[in-house]
Amino acid sequence: MIPYSYSFRNLWTRRITTLLTASGMGLVVFVFAATLMLAEGLEKTLVQTGSPENVIVIRKSANSEVQSGVERNQASLLSSQPEVAIGPDGNPLFAKELVVLINLKKRGSNKPANVVIRGIDAASLQLRPAVHLAEGRMPRPGSAEVIAGKSIARRFNGCGLGETLRFGMRDWRVVGVFDAGATGFSSEIWGDVDQMMQAFRRQVYSSVTFRLRDAGGFDAYRARVESDPRLTVEAKRESKYYADQSESMAKFLRILGMVLTVVFSIGAVIGATITMYAAVANRVTEIGTLRALGFQRGSILAAFIMESLLLGLCGGVLGVVAASFMQLITISTMNWQSFAELAFSFTLTFRILWQSLLFSLVMGFIGGVLPAFRAARMNIVESLRAT
Amino acid sequence: MAYETPIVQIRDLSKSYRRGSQVIPVLTGINFDIAQGEFVALMGPSGSGKSTLLNLIAGIDSADGGSIRVGGVEITSLTESELAHWRAGNVGFIFQFYNLIPVLTAYENVELPLLLTPLKRDERREHVEAALNVVGLADRMDHYPSQLSGGQQQRVAIARAIVTDPEILVADEPTGDLDRSSAEEILQLMDRLVHTFKKTIIMVTHDPRAAEKAHLIRHLEKGELSTN
Question: Distance between CA B81 and CA A5 in Å, rounded?
Fold first, then answer.
């Protein structure tokens, strides 16, 4: 076989051309990786929002808390099941919550967007250990006070510490800002559930969430409550519930990413093909010499395909390196499943890394295959005469 | 120089090229023997078919008719792939423009033909160093072709041609691109390959000084061979 160094050094010898062609491919790999990272970030944020030991109960056939309703008597029935864990204070770790969407204006642009208001119960905070107060204090029960998730406090008018918000025909003072890490809770506003029920004139809760006494008790609980004729509810592990919330958006992002990259990659592959045709045309005598020395057509084919694969890999590395910087950026957009704003980051995983590099190799291969065949099919005498 | 079996035996060899619908005969009814250890010069005007004859003997072109036996092998009946394999072990090439691979060092250029053999890295190193020693360039093995003079490049090319120890060397205008003193060095080297290493060299040349070094000069004219 012709040594790999032959392919590598030829790329290095014409490094400007190599760099330009690889940049074109890198751009496509960047788009490819970035959309996958976006979908991954969305999924990760929502999956991290839920905890597997928690169970969320919503109305049967409701897709999200916003569409759900759980009546007061149903809620108390749900709380009295044996699988519900008891907290250190002797009360069940069980929270009846209200979820309402309100319209708030973004800082700077004044563009409206939907924000989740969550009416919380005494146990809500205990159920979400990821959530902790970053600034200020917790709202006093029975008062018109709220706390805002840190990405909401930063991005929406009136949501910062000490500011006042108007919704539900009342003014609400922001007395604290909470940090819920990279979870969906960071994009919510929390206040006392009873105050919220009054303000929004609601008779029913949106959902109830509780901690399992024993993580294995979920199936029994679900079977019992879902077959109870008094209850028209559906129980899901909280982690599964939030993972489902990301499904359609993540799928959309992935399909969009695929369509974009397929279209762009046609351009990049044509670029690689032109570069490789030029490489073959410049090395006709070399090819003839190698064939005369006894190298078979297959070896020539392999050497040029190797060169093109390396070219693709250069592009892949450039694209992935560029995409990895996207991890510094946080995106805030509407999650269609919950109709609410959600902040999440580009997330690079090992899987996205190898998929991107594989994609770049595929582009390199497709770009190189025709020129490599031309090189392999050359007539020895004619190519030696090309000197 | 009396050798029993000629290393190259050519019988009734013919070759023509097609240009559109026209068939242009290049070689017609060539009969030609070359004894082992011979240094043969093929001369003749441009288009006389001397390079074609050399290419046919070296197995990089295919004949239309007749037979070419080299070292007992009828090369006209080999498939393309068998021919490539045969060339790798039996023929060394010396070109007018050296045809070194510019991105490989002198060492790597000389090593190329050995990559087609089952030799291990250490064994290849021994062979490459021996070949570079023969041409007197062992101290330049890490240089790239662009860092060498024309004469040095041609010596590297000769090292590449002899590194697999083939019996036959074919040279197409080996001094055509060199100044007089470099050309003289190359010719002396080729002479040494014949006398010391018992190689058979078939050389196409326009240069009468180059031809003088040969034991035998054959002239080709309009596709036919004449002894001079």
Answer: 24
Contact status of A248 with chain B (Cβ, < 8 Å): no
ipTM of the complex: 0.94
pLDDT digits (tens, 9 = 90+) for B166-213: 999 999 999 999 999 999 999 999 999 999 999 999 999 988 888 988
CA B85, CA A291: separation in Å to the nearest integer?
10
- Alpha-carbon distance of A221 to A228, in angstroms, equals 11
Residue A178 CA to residue A25 CA, distance in Å, equals: 42
Residue A137 half-sphere exposure, CB side, CA atoms within 13 Å? 4
Which residue is closest to B164 within chain A, CA to CA? A293
Within 8 A of B85 by CB-CB distance, chain A residues are: 294, 296
What is the C-alpha separation between B124 and B116, in angstroms, rounded?
Answer: 11
Confidence of residue B1 (pLDDT cuts 50, 70, 90): very low
Provide the percentage of residues in chain A whose pLDDT is more than 90.
60
Say if B78 is an interface residue toward chain A (CB within 8 Å): no
DSSP codes joined into one string, A180-213: -SSSGGGGEEEEEHHHHHHHTT-SSBSEEEEEBS
B-contacting residues in A 5-64 (Cβ below 8 Å): 5-6, 9-10, 12-13
